[in-house]
Every structure is written in C-alpha cells, then in structure tokens.
Design brief:
heterodimer; A: alpha+beta; Glutamine Phosphoribosylpyrophosphate, subunit 1, domain 1; five-stranded antiparallel sheet; 6 helices; B: alpha+beta; 7 helices; about 25% strand; globular; cytoplasm (chain A); nucleus (chain A); Proteasome_sua/b (chain A)
C-alpha cells in the first residue's frame, strides 16, 4: 500500500490510493515545526499568544514582523509558520474585511473566517499551487450580535470556532492545558466562572513558557494581543507591562509546580508501601 | 490486482483497462475522510437528512461543526467527505442558486442545482488542473411540480434522484436498510420519515444516540403546495423523536 505517499505526494491535485492528499498533510507538518500559537476565548474577550523564535542571535528583538496583525480594528489574525504565507493571508483577510465595510456593515467573524478558509482551500485544489504552510487564528468581535469569537483555519482549509485553539510545535500539550481552563460556557462548574481575559493572558504565558525547553529550543519572544471589553473591542497588543507581569507569574507557577511534582512522587511511594 | 500504477497519478489519464484511478481514489476520500455516514430520504410531503455530529475535540465550539447546510431557504444539503471540500461545494451551491434566481426570476429547483453541481464536478474529472472535490452531496428540497426531491451528487459528476440515499463510510449498509422500506417511504409523513432516518442511522452504526450526537434537518411542503423552509431540528426536538422511537421499540 502506498501509505508512505511515494509518488502520490508531489501535487495537491493527486489523491493517494487510500484517498488522502499528502501535500495537505505535509503542509500541516510545516506548521507543526513552527513556534506555538495559542488563542483563548474568555468571558470578556479573546487573547492571542505567539511564541516567536529569535532565529538568529544577532536579530534585534521586537523588530521582526509582528505575527499578529489586525485585519480590521475588530478582528485580528495570528499565524504560525511561513512568514510570507502568513503575510499573504493577512493581506487577503484585510481586503475581505474592507470589502464588507462597503456593504454597509462590518464583516461578521464567521463570514471572515469562512472567506479565509475558502481561499486557503483553493490552494489545495490545483496542481500548479501548493497549500499554505500556515494556520490562522482569527479573533474577532461581531458588532451585530455583540459576541466575540475565536476561529482557526488549518492548511487544509478546515475552519472551526474554538473555545481554545493551538497550532504549532506545542499544540498537543497546550490543548491539554487549555481544556483544564474554564472556557466552555456550558461546562462551568458550580460556583465557578468563566476565565477572564486578564487571567487568560497569564495562563497563556504560562503554557508557552512551560512548553519551551531552554536547552533545546531557540530563545523566543512572547507576543500577545487581545480583543476585549477593556480595549473597546479593538484588537490591540497587550501592554508590555502586563505581559512582563504575566511572564513573571508564569515562571513562578512553573517553578512551584516543579517542586510539587517532586513532593507528590514521595507521597505516592508512601501510599504504595501501605 | 494489477494497479496499473503508472496510470493513477493524473485524472486525465485512463488506465489500459479503461479506469480512471484518480476518480476512484476521490470516491475513497469522500467516503472515508470524515468517517461519518449521512442519510437522506423523502416521504409523502417532506424530505429528511440525518448524520452524526462528531465534534473533533472539546475545545471546538459544537455549533460550528455541521455537515448540514441551507443553500437557499428552501433547499438544503448534507455534504459528507473532506470538510474543506464540502465547504467549498456549499459555497458554490449558494452562489449558483442565488445567481439562478437573479437571472431567471424564480427559485432554482433542487434538480437543476444538482445538475449544475454535477456538471461542475465532471469538469474536474476531465481537466487535469483541478482535482475532484472529495465530497458527496445529498441535496433536498421541494420541487413545485415534482414534490419532495432527494438528489445525490458524487465526485464523478453523477446525479440521480432518490427515494432514499446514503453517503459516507456506511453507505452500503444504510442503502440496504432503506431498500427494504422503499415502498413504505412514499407514504410517510414528516414524523415517520424523521424516525425512519434516525433508526436507519442507528442500525448501521450499531448504537443509540443522544440528542446532541446527531444532526437532523428537513424540508416540508408548505401551504399552497410550494416548498416550505429547510431547517434543522433542535436538540430537544431530536430528543422527542428519540424517545418516541424508544417507546415504539418497547411496545
């Protein structure tokens, strides 16, 4: 069986004998090799966080292009992996958003995400083109329904709305961590409440820092932005002091958890002896 | 089985046996990509579509995962296969239906829409630049003259009207189930049609459902004989039907 893809994996317009399109799967792998990007939908807004590896020690931090860009003031996109692919998608997203304003209304988040996903999907159809090596997270606010939302579009063109979305290298552990946070309005535990944006900022900082292995990975910069009540539902970068505070808190939490794990191991040994 | 492995890389190449392998692989992708099964059937004055609702993970908002789409207010489609291909097909259908109504001044009949999508699908089987869309469409609507219509469009560009049709991974089992009831189906009212569709899905998957695990949608003949609106059942409405089915089974 050709499950290795040999011969069937050279073009987006070729199906393999078991009905897969390998070029799309390879594009997804390209995203998996990139730094982690996270999005979290909180009670009062959406937070985006990206781990931006500083690929070269000579690079001046904070001058490499922002991975998170505003599409319109009310929507923002953060993309993982290929810088040029991301720029092209952001540009497309911006043009879409502007066209909608000509219709007399700001583009609803679901429509914007749907248009981007259709565009991304187009590149998976033609043999002459290759799929985008980028996942896109769209955080947006619908002025009509007054509802904020988070969508993610994958290289295959699949687009869903998320409570918490992760893409890139650390997405599996990040998803596990995000599931523990209270983001699903239908699953709020008794006496609990949905996570707020300021708490979300700290949790995302913690997730990204805990996934980063100082020994193996390059040093990175944490870029965060939000779209929330506090920012007037405009997409803005999270102020640097808040990010710094969140990172400090995150590092302390990670250290504490490290210690607790060691204590926990001792306890388990005691129980087993009993 | 000789696979004529040199002939299966491109859609525009026949194998020496006269097969189009890329077309067959596209069918494979359409039926196995999502792992879901979809069923559509028509009764006396209504059409029903049913499929599973499988949310990929807990962080996804369930309402954004749906394979049932309204094309116009009166025509709906159940699209199974590769998700983004289904999405693209649905967008195209919406465009075609709106364009038809604009041009000709009356709503596009379901069969015309099916024919149009089938023609578009056929182009992809003959021209090498674009691959076939790996999705099977079950289009439902009420035609002014012909009544309830269920039409199935596949990646090859076949389209046919059915009394009952299935798509997806358990297509064959579901079709067998429906074939046994084909004479009865023609007389069913809406409730019976919905329950038959749900029972069919349950029997081919070998499991029971809860209200939030399946999607059910229907379109019923409206007043004056024309088409009514295509709409999805809410979770409560689905639960009602599930309870009725359970009661019938006990009785």
């Amino acid at each position: 069986m050709a499950s290795s893809g040999s011969g069937y994996d050279l073009s987006s317009s070729t199906f393999s004998p078991d009905g897969r399109i390998f070029q799309i799967e390879y594009a997804a792998k390209a995203v998996e090799n990139a730094g982690t990007a996270l999005g979290l939908r909180c009670a009062d807004g959406v937070v985006l966080a990206v781990e931006k590896p500083l690929v070269n020690r000579m690079l001046v931090a904070r001058t490499t292009g922002g991975y998170t860009r505003s599409t319109s003031t009310r929507a923002s996109r953060s993309r993982v992996s290929s810088a040029t692919a991301g720029r092209s998608l952001t540009g497309r997203g911006r043009r879409r958003a502007i066209t909608r304003r000509h219709h007399g209304t700001k583009i609803p988040p679901a429509t914007l995400s749907s248009r981007i996903s259709a565009y991304v999907h187009y590149f998976t159809l033609h043999g002459a083109l290759r799929p985008f090596g980028a996942s896109t997270l769209v955080a947006a606010y619908d002025t009509g329904t007054k509802r904020h939302s988070l969508h993610m579009i994958e290289p295959s063109g699949v687009c869903y709305e998320y409570y918490g979305a992760a893409a890139g290298r650390g997405r599996q552990p990040a998803r596990t961590e995000m599931e523990k946070l209270v983001v699903n309005p239908s699953r709020v535990p008794e006496g609990g409440e949905m996570i707020s944006v300021s708490e979300g900022v700290r949790q995302l900082a913690k997730i990204i820092h805990s996934l980063h292995d100082d020994a193996k990975d390059k040093p990175f910069e944490l870029e965060m932005s939000w779209l929330c009540e506090g920012s007037g539902w405009k997409h803005e970068g999270v102020p640097r002091e808040i990010i710094a505070g969140a990172v400090e808190w995150a590092k302390k939490e990670i250290e504490n958890e490290g210690e607790n794990d060691e204590e926990g191991d001792d306890d388990e040994d005691d129980e087993m002896e009993e | 089985m000789s696979r004529d492995s040199n002939y299966d890389h491109h859609i525009s190449i026949f194998s020496p046996q006269g097969r189009l392998y890329q077309m067959e692989y596209a069918f494979k992708a359409a039926s196995s990509a999502s792992g879901l099964t979809g069923i559509a059937l028509r009764g006396r004055d209504s059409c029903v579509v049913v499929t599973q609702r499988r949310v990929p993970d807990r962080l996804v908002v369930p309402s954004s995962v749906s394979h049932v789409h309204a094309i116009t207010s009166r025509i709906g489609v159940l699209a199974t296969g590769m998700t983004s291909d289904c999405h693209a097909a649905v967008q195209r259908m919406r465009y075609e239906a709106a364009d038809f109504e604009f041009r000709y001044g009356y709503p596009m009949p379901p069969s015309s829409l099916a024919r149009r999508m089938a023609d578009l699908a056929q182009v992809n089987t003959q021209s090498a630049s674009m691959r076939p869309l790996a999705c099977v469409l079950l289009i439902v609507g009420i035609d002014d003259e012909m009544g309830p219509q269920v039409l199935k469009v596949d990646p090859a560009g076949h389209y046919l009207p059915f009394v009952g049709a299935a798509s997806g991974s358990k297509e064959q089992e579901a079709t067998n189930f429906l074939e046994k009831r084909v004479d009865d189906l023609k007389g069913y009212g809406l409730d019976e049609a919905v329950r038959t569709a749900i029972v069919c899905l349950g029997s081919v998957l070998g499991s029971d459902f809860r209200g939030n695990e399946i999607e059910v949608a229907f379109v019923q003949r409206g007043k004056g004989g024309g088409g009514g609106k295509f709409r999805s059942l809410t979770e409560e409405e689905i639960e009602e039907h599930l309870n009725a089915i359970a009661d019938d089974a006990d009785a």
